[in-house]
Amino acid sequence: MTNRQEQIFTYLKQQPHGMDASEIAEKMSLDRSNVSRYLNELAKEGRVNRIQGRPVIFKVVEELSEGENSQQFEISFDDLVGAHDSLKVSIQQAKAAILYPPKGLHTIVFGETGTGKSLFAECMYRFAVSSTNLQKDAPFISFNCADYAQNPQLLFAHIFGVKKGAYTGADEDREGLLAKADGGILFLDEIHRLPPEGQEMLFTFIDKGVYRPLGESSQTYEASVQIIGATTESSEIFLTTFNRRIPMSITLPPLRNRSIDERYDIVTLFIKQEADRLRQKIVVERDVIMAFMLYQAEGNIGQVKRDLKLVCAKSYLYYRTHEEEYLKIKQKDLPLQVQKGLLKIKEMPDRVERFIDKSSHYLTFEPGSQDVVWQQDPARDMDVYEAIEKKVTSLSKEELAEVDLEKIIASDVGQFFEAYVGELARNDIHRDLISDELWSLTDRLYDIAEEKLGRTYNEKARFTFALHLQGTLERIKDNRIIVHPNLNDVRINYREEFQVALDLSAIIEAEFNIEIPFDEIGFITMFLSMDLTEPTKKVNNEVAVLLLMHGKSTASSMLEAVQELLGTENGIAFNMPLDMEVQTMYEKVRDYVIEHKKDMHSGMLLLTDMGSLNTFGNMIFEETGVKTKAISMVSTMIVLEAVRMARMGRTLEDIYQNIQGSFEGIIRDQFRPKKKLKKAVVVTCFTGEGVAAKLYERVYPVVNTEEVQIFQLQFLEKESFRERIDNLIEEYDVKAIVGTVDIEYQNIPFFSAFDIFNGEKLNDFKRIVAEEIPIEQMITSLEGSLKSVTSVPELLQSLQKLVTEIQTDAKILVEPGVDAAILIHLAFMVDKLKNGEKARSFTELEEFKRNHRIEFNVVKTKLMQIEKKYKLMFPEDEIGLVAQMFVENQVRNFY
Amino acid sequence: MSKKTIMLVCSAGMSTSLLVTKMQKAADARGLEADIFAVSASEADQNIESKDVNVLLLGPQVRFMKAQFEGKLAPKGIPLDVIDMKDYGMMNGENVLNQALKLIGE
């Protein structure tokens, strides 16, 4: 930057309306073309704006961030929300780790994404400085191990340094982060991404304080560095080696475990920060604060921060374009997910009220002058605001009058938001797996597809496709030919998608200079026609459920029971007293359908008990045109299932198939001889080899393959796939299906490809397929301790069967291992009751029964077998406690 | 080494009593002075107050109470964890004792 340039900049700064080049040249007595060159240079740097017109006016960009008069304070533990509450223990541990003589303890910080691990590490560093355990100018080096995870050698070199000539391109000695951090702290984020050789070297360093740069053979180097590692992996599956070597482990709580008080503090703190950064008052609706306090943020505090930032940016846009006096945030501006938080207010009314007086509708946040600075805060940047600001200023002069400013900017900024949010939604592992090149290509292709097909695809769909595309490219490169068995059907049934797939293929061909065969295009078509969008907006498309039964009130009382159990009003009952003519009944039903036809475009499910009622289905369809499926020989359980699935917005065909399926399942279970089946998991995709192979690679390491067989199957079409699963079930105990298309079948837990590349979901998967504790060993361990029963093996075997049955009937899948614990619990309970010992009381029994009647009843009925066999009575309280164990220990999101 | 107080919590306090016996046996064999006892979830609070508990272990069937206990124990600095499922299923006193000692930090 030249001096002249700065002079011009300083001069321009004093011109509130900007100035053109010749005027500046004149005023400053400089050459016009030189001034012009400097101005363009400044514009390129983004420090001045060009306001188009004749002549072009230049104006200094208003600086939003980092004003001179703001006082900055460095972050410390005391600034953290919950420092004296949920984080108290963690902070004590952290302080202990720093103060531990002589040089502090190496530490690992566990915590989900967005719980504030890097912030915490920075606080540790600040504490070390302020407690004089580190020099004032001691280095704090922060590095994310995921950054070079694709290239272990580079990663290694980056951390430990490299000697000249270690590899081609290493033409000089370079010191690594360890050397740079000498005398201070090295923070390694996502430390689990460190490759094995890196881990080994790190351990050597931890044990002995010495290390060897890449390419160094003789000499070792010393450094005095305290390592702080951070990981999202939970400590259970995290390499035991790490646990052993790193003496201090600290866990940061996820947002859901934080108290409502803390959530209030978090939300208000962030809004305050935005007010400070913008130096502008922000007025917030009461409900906005509530929603942010209560909504479910999977990405923890980090997500709350991002969501708030976006909301602030939106309101900043409005503020700028409407020349408001201050920023306003309204409930309607919130993303849907955040608004959903308001649904929880009812659950905790008195607790929430105390934060904000019911009479005040707004909260005001005034900008202050104190700003606590967290160096690495990603939300600190002002890009969003600057983008808005730039746009507003560049347009303001001439076009202001005619143009609908807000609209223009909204579209621009809208894209910006989307890019920003989309970027964030992709977690590192997902991003890491696919090269940037492929990601951007996938995004480009899907953007085109979305536009042409007028449809939106979510991140999951894009991710899966990117994985598939990787496979496709590898196949084509290796000259492997894949055959699409239903190519013609796909072409005919998905004409539109096929057209688009052709266009997309042309782009891919150009990009990689290859030729894509038709069969591959067929698969691409299937991806485009695949429905991976979240089932959110189907609320008004529920399938109608009609229950027709003989008897004065059979239908209505059956439906009533179901409605009460589910807490819904869905479904309609038709009673047919025995003296009623079939014709009359038919007309009644038909008239009802005609009257409500407009609400039935998703079709209806006709549930009947017997006889002529079974034939109504087709007739009603022909007369009214409403798509109808009929199921006969209905039991309460079937009505329950039908209403439940209808309420969830599942399609008619889906509900019909499922009920048919579970019917068959029940019957088969009754007849199938019980034998010990080998466990299996299924990985699947359209080709059966592309994505499925990737999934196979991903699950293979976490599965004990001696016990569990992994099947790689092709999924072309639902029916035949189900058939194959049916066949497998005969031979294997299928524990899970992992695949690209959501499959809900036979109550087998399903994991999407997206899930499986997510650490936590993979953990769920791992636990589901984990080894079970063999019953024989349990029997041995309990032998001799249950004195009142004659045969321990017999008791345990019948209890084991019971625990399984309860899970099937109550549609609960408990965490692996918990079933064994429940089994033992039951065994001891039988023993105690036989001995006449007093039962315990369950104080919230009534409430529990109200909320979990189905589960309670299932447990109660199942226990009756045991009561009979062992001649005892289970008190209601004990039954409630057992039911509670099932309910509370279930794996979420299955069934 | 001072005396260790280890508290086990399960839904009824009964299935863990066998485990307590086995753990006590393991402790005795090592010449470790330990007070190991099992209580039901409802009795736990009272025991946390009245006894000088060093570590708390939860039965797998009440793992859902972990967060609740964490809140109560964190201010006192008492560590807790869920008993390893496998060890619980096989009533392996030796391993569970190790788990407890590890949590205390020994």
TrEMBL record, chain A:
<keyword id="KW-0547">Nucleotide-binding</keyword>
<dbReference type="InterPro" id="IPR027417">
    <property type="entry name" value="P-loop_NTPase"/>
</dbReference>
<dbReference type="InterPro" id="IPR036662">
    <property type="entry name" value="PTS_EIIA_man-typ_sf"/>
</dbReference>
<dbReference type="InterPro" id="IPR004701">
    <property type="entry name" value="PTS_EIIA_man-typ"/>
</dbReference>
<dbReference type="InterPro" id="IPR025943">
    <property type="entry name" value="Sigma_54_int_dom_ATP-bd_2"/>
</dbReference>
<protein>
    <recommendedName>
        <fullName>DNA translocase FtsK</fullName>
    </recommendedName>
</protein>
<dbReference type="InterPro" id="IPR033887">
    <property type="entry name" value="PTS_IIA_man"/>
</dbReference>
<dbReference type="GO" id="GO:0016020">
    <property type="term" value="C:membrane"/>
</dbReference>
<dbReference type="InterPro" id="IPR003593">
    <property type="entry name" value="AAA+_ATPase"/>
</dbReference>
<dbReference type="InterPro" id="IPR036388">
    <property type="entry name" value="WH-like_DNA-bd_sf"/>
</dbReference>
<dbReference type="Pfam" id="PF00874">
    <property type="entry name" value="PRD"/>
</dbReference>
<keyword id="KW-0418">Kinase</keyword>
<dbReference type="Pfam" id="PF03610">
    <property type="entry name" value="EIIA-man"/>
</dbReference>
<feature type="domain" description="PRD">
    <location>
        <begin position="790"/>
        <end position="895"/>
    </location>
</feature>
<feature type="domain" description="Sigma-54 factor interaction">
    <location>
        <begin position="80"/>
        <end position="313"/>
    </location>
</feature>
<dbReference type="InterPro" id="IPR002831">
    <property type="entry name" value="Tscrpt_reg_TrmB_N"/>
</dbReference>
<feature type="domain" description="PRD">
    <location>
        <begin position="433"/>
        <end position="538"/>
    </location>
</feature>
<dbReference type="GO" id="GO:0016301">
    <property type="term" value="F:kinase activity"/>
</dbReference>
<dbReference type="Pfam" id="PF00158">
    <property type="entry name" value="Sigma54_activat"/>
</dbReference>
<keyword id="KW-0238">DNA-binding</keyword>
<dbReference type="GO" id="GO:0006355">
    <property type="term" value="P:regulation of DNA-templated transcription"/>
</dbReference>
<dbReference type="InterPro" id="IPR011608">
    <property type="entry name" value="PRD"/>
</dbReference>
TrEMBL record, chain B:
<dbReference type="GO" id="GO:0008982">
    <property type="term" value="F:protein-N(PI)-phosphohistidine-sugar phosphotransferase activity"/>
</dbReference>
<feature type="modified residue" description="Phosphocysteine; by EIIA">
    <location>
        <position position="10"/>
    </location>
</feature>
<keyword id="KW-0418">Kinase</keyword>
<keyword id="KW-0813">Transport</keyword>
<dbReference type="GO" id="GO:0016301">
    <property type="term" value="F:kinase activity"/>
</dbReference>
<protein>
    <submittedName>
        <fullName>PTS sugar transporter subunit IIB</fullName>
    </submittedName>
</protein>
<dbReference type="Pfam" id="PF02302">
    <property type="entry name" value="PTS_IIB"/>
</dbReference>
<dbReference type="InterPro" id="IPR003501">
    <property type="entry name" value="PTS_EIIB_2/3"/>
</dbReference>
<keyword id="KW-0598">Phosphotransferase system</keyword>
<dbReference type="InterPro" id="IPR013012">
    <property type="entry name" value="PTS_EIIB_3"/>
</dbReference>
<dbReference type="InterPro" id="IPR051819">
    <property type="entry name" value="PTS_sugar-specific_EIIB"/>
</dbReference>
<dbReference type="GO" id="GO:0009401">
    <property type="term" value="P:phosphoenolpyruvate-dependent sugar phosphotransferase system"/>
</dbReference>
<feature type="domain" description="PTS EIIB type-3">
    <location>
        <begin position="3"/>
        <end position="106"/>
    </location>
</feature>
<keyword id="KW-0808">Transferase</keyword>
<dbReference type="InterPro" id="IPR036095">
    <property type="entry name" value="PTS_EIIB-like_sf"/>
</dbReference>
<keyword id="KW-0762">Sugar transport</keyword>
<keyword id="KW-0597">Phosphoprotein</keyword>
